[in-house]
Automatic annotation (TrEMBL), chain A:
<feature type="transmembrane region" description="Helical">
    <location>
        <begin position="21"/>
        <end position="41"/>
    </location>
</feature>
<keyword id="KW-0812">Transmembrane</keyword>
<keyword id="KW-0408">Iron</keyword>
<feature type="transmembrane region" description="Helical">
    <location>
        <begin position="53"/>
        <end position="75"/>
    </location>
</feature>
<comment type="similarity">
    <text>Belongs to the cytochrome b560 family.</text>
</comment>
<keyword id="KW-0472">Membrane</keyword>
<keyword id="KW-0349">Heme</keyword>
<dbReference type="InterPro" id="IPR034804">
    <property type="entry name" value="SQR/QFR_C/D"/>
</dbReference>
<keyword id="KW-0479">Metal-binding</keyword>
<dbReference type="InterPro" id="IPR000701">
    <property type="entry name" value="SuccDH_FuR_B_TM-su"/>
</dbReference>
<dbReference type="GO" id="GO:0046872">
    <property type="term" value="F:metal ion binding"/>
</dbReference>
<dbReference type="InterPro" id="IPR039023">
    <property type="entry name" value="SdhC_prok"/>
</dbReference>
<dbReference type="GO" id="GO:0009055">
    <property type="term" value="F:electron transfer activity"/>
</dbReference>
<dbReference type="GO" id="GO:0006099">
    <property type="term" value="P:tricarboxylic acid cycle"/>
</dbReference>
<dbReference type="InterPro" id="IPR014314">
    <property type="entry name" value="Succ_DH_cytb556"/>
</dbReference>
<keyword id="KW-1133">Transmembrane helix</keyword>
<protein>
    <submittedName>
        <fullName>Succinate dehydrogenase cytochrome b-556 subunit</fullName>
    </submittedName>
</protein>
Length: 125, 130
């Protein structure tokens, strides 16, 4: 690594830190959009029209991305709380992050398949 | 063993500074959101397909005040957890005091507007179907 780099050599912990920030930021951005689209409930026809857009394949992929960001942020957040409560757990911090990634994939992939199912079945394009 | 794998000394927080309260808040709201956000996502994206969650679907759920309360708690906790996280990110990356102040003003203003819009959406929704 070059000496001019601002990266600290935290290894897996650094990636967990970065992942937590990025996923938190992305979920927050979605939340802004989501509060605005739900506010359209005041005009039922408009709400239903806009809402139907979420069913197309591009926004379904976006939905899968949201799920992955959400579950990673959830499980990594639980890891952070666990290390705060039991500082000894830091000895196994690399294993803990592997568990976080495994849980993210174990929940995110089946969830993603369910979300993409209408597309997989060929019902939508 | 690297230095990182050495457990830190047990934290002894005596003074309850605003940052200490922020730390407590992130843990408590985060743990509540594990349930609130995941239940919400499971109902609206997994159990029901996203296209099924139309106006009539919301009307049926919000007929029950407990679900309105659930959604309002999710709104407030998700926004405040998110804005507090973004506050620390702004502190880390926006170095000039003037710009930091400006970015935070926009962030807090936007969050405040969204709390009001979201609360209004939940409260103003009619109690009987259209």
């Amino acid at each position: 690594m070059s000496t001019g780099s601002t990266r600290y050599k935290g290894k897996s912990g650094q990636w967990a830190f970065l992942g937590h920030r990025i996923t938190g930021f992305l979920v927050f951005l979605f939340l802004l959009l989501h509060i605005v689209d739900v506010s359209l409930l005041r005009w039922p026809e408009t709400y239903d029209q806009v809402h139907r857009l979420y069913g197309n394949v591009v926004l379904r992929l976006f939905e899968v991305g949201l799920l992955l960001a959400l579950v990673f942020h959830t499980f990594n957040g639980m890891r952070i709380v666990a290390v705060d409560m039991f500082p000894e757990a830091v000895r196994n911090q690399r294993r803990l992050l592997q568990v976080v990634v495994a849980l993210t994939l174990l929940t995110g992939i089946p969830g993603g398949v369910v979300i993409m199912w209408p597309f997989i079945e060929g019902r939508i394009l | 063993m690297t230095a990182l794998e050495t457990p830190p000394p047990k934290p002894r927080v005596r003074a309850r500074s605003p940052e200490a309260w922020s730390w407590v808040f992130m843990r408590l709201s985060g743990l509540a959101l594990v349930f609130l956000a995941l239940i919400h996502f499971t109902i609206t994206h997994i159990v029901n397909d996203v296209v099924e969650t139309d106006y009539d679907f919301v009307a049926e759920r919000w007929h029950n005040p407990a679900w309105r309360m659930f959604d309002w708690l999710l709104l407030v906790l998700a926004l405040s957890h998110g804005v507090n996280g973004l506050r620390t990110i702004v502190d880390d990356y926006v170095r000039s005091p003037g710009r930091r102040k400006a970015v935070k003003a926009v962030l807090y203003g936007l969050t405040g507007v969204l709390v009001i819009v979201g609360t209004f959406t939940i409260l103003a929704f009619p109690t009987r179907p259209r």
